[in-house]
Amino acid sequence: MEERILMNQVGYRPGDVKHAVLKDGVYDTFKVVDEAGKTVLEGKVTGPVHNENAGEDNYLADFSKVSEPGKYYLIAGDVKSEAICVGENVYQDLLYDITRFFYLQRCGCEIPAELGGKFAHKSCHDTKARIYGTDTFIDVNGGWHDAGDYGRYVAPAAMTVAQLLLAYQNSEKLRKLELNIPESGRALPDVLSEIKYELDWMLKMQDRVTGQVYHKVTCASFPGFVMPEYETEELIISPVSVTATATFAASLAMASSFYEDYNEAFSKTLLDAAKKAYGALAGMSMPGGFKNPSDIVTGEYGDPVDRDELYWAAAALYQATGMEQYRKDFEALAKEQIMHGYGWEDVATYGNLAYLSAQYPKDEALVEAIKKDMTALADKYLEIGKKDSYECCLDEYKWGSNLYLAEIGSHLYDAYALTGNEEYLKAAWEQFHYLMGKNPTGYCYVTGYGYKAPVYPHHRPSVAADSPMPGMLVGGPDCGLHDPDAVEHCTGKPAAKCYIDVLGSYSTNEVTIYWNSALIYLMLMLK
Ligand code: G3I
Ligand code: 9MR
Ligand code: ZN
User: Fold this and answer.
1) Cβ 222 under 6 angstroms from ligand 2
2) Pocket (CB within 6 angstroms of ligand 1)
3) What is the pLDDT of residues 496-512, one digit of tens each?
4) 425: alpha, beta or left, given left = phi > 0 and alpha = psi -120 to 50?
5) Which has the least CB within 10 A, 300, 339, 456, 509?
6) Tens of pLDDT along 19-66?
7) What domains lie within the chain, and their CATH numbers?
């Protein structure tokens, strides 16, 4: 049975705008009652409006005026909603779980029972790995498992690190967040300790001599649904790639400043590795992007367009060092074409943000042009959202649509931070509400949250433990129907409903580190 009243299932803070979407009926008025049944608000719905992506006719109820902390129900026509929580801290547990997820994704170490609970496991993937096509084995222990599989891939790792760092920088909640991890209690804040776990691994993925960076380390194929220590096939380090080398340079340059005050040596190691990787890029060319060797079938993360990775790397190194060469490189690329994007394959916005916040001389005309590009894009998203009854700003539902939606939210937030225009901020929050349940499928797309959450995520530890790990954002609707279960269950469905909570649907129901980090980055709005 589909939900008929769609809203953020986790709740709202007292002052938040609160919009509900109603469907499968004809509605006129609505009311909100408290736990005792007392009416606290009455109003008229608006609509109906047709939603093409969802194939629905919707009515809308604005209950923003309900601002006293408490538990409420919305009633319209013959339908009553589930409980709606209003409170200042309704998102605190969510923020904890989606961030602690990274600890539970750690590779190359034991997760002890007292910290991992059901997801405790012995050390995994801790043998030396073969460099593809050679008899050389090296240590690349550590890092986070990428997703529902146990691969470790540099490009998505770089983007995850960037998003977590930006969130950390802009949100006091994250700076103060205690994660109950082995490093807790030390001088280094927990979120930075967790990110360091990934950075330590990334450093091992760089070839010491050339400075180039290996694309990924995985087994030759995906394992069954077992805990990570039972994936014991040979670990293979795939060849180097431009995507990996450039995003490595960018994210490590960016990270170096965050560790300066806590661990100068580590900060310097990061910056030196970033410079070396950047220097190595000149001698690399990979038309068509990384391609899996024929005997490796794990995630490819192939990206034929390198321009945005180079753009981000140059800007991040300029921000970190103020060196003329990096400035020249970035400005040359940006003058040719300003780019944007925050995904694993499109990373230029990190470049724009780095250039805008660099404390060194800049081309002022270029600064203005970048700002203009950012607001023009935000305006485009606003327009899409205004036409959609769920206020969703996506115009395409592809693999990982929830990531693209979170990114759009972050872009709107960035545009708000740049201009102070509250329209952008409001729209950014609606993207968050979408992910939490105000969407056509009626799922709160984070495991363990809301009254209708995914329970069969494509995530090996969750299957092995027979319980979904809480705090994971699933990929969401993908109208490309990229797996047999999606084909079976979603053929003929409208785009925004091509989602299925079954284990086999890796194209709609998997989880990844960079989908979670995108949600954390969006949640920096909590401040
Ligand atoms: O970019 C094109 C777009 O231009 C086009 O309009 C659209 C139409 O379908 O397709 C877009 O490309 C899609 C791309 O994702 C966009 O992000 C591809 O079809 C789609 O196959 C591709 O999916 C990627 C998937 O791997 C398969 O390669 C996902 O982004 C990526 O998140 C996912 O990553 C996997 C790893 O390989 C392995 N680990 C798990 C992880 C998550 O599922
Ligand atoms: O589990 C794998 C998941 O992490 C990947 O995103 C996905 C696409 O590359 O592949 C999954 O593995 C499936 C494989 O592609 C085909 N056989 C079944 C595997 C498990 O569902
Ligand atoms: Zn592992």
Assistant:
1) yes
2) 146-147, 149, 151, 299-301, 398-400, 480, 482, 506, 510, 512
3) 999 999 999 999 999 99
4) alpha
5) 300
6) 999 999 999 999 999 999 999 999 999 999 999 999 999 999 999 999
7) 1-89 (2.60.40.10), 104-302 (1.50.10.10)
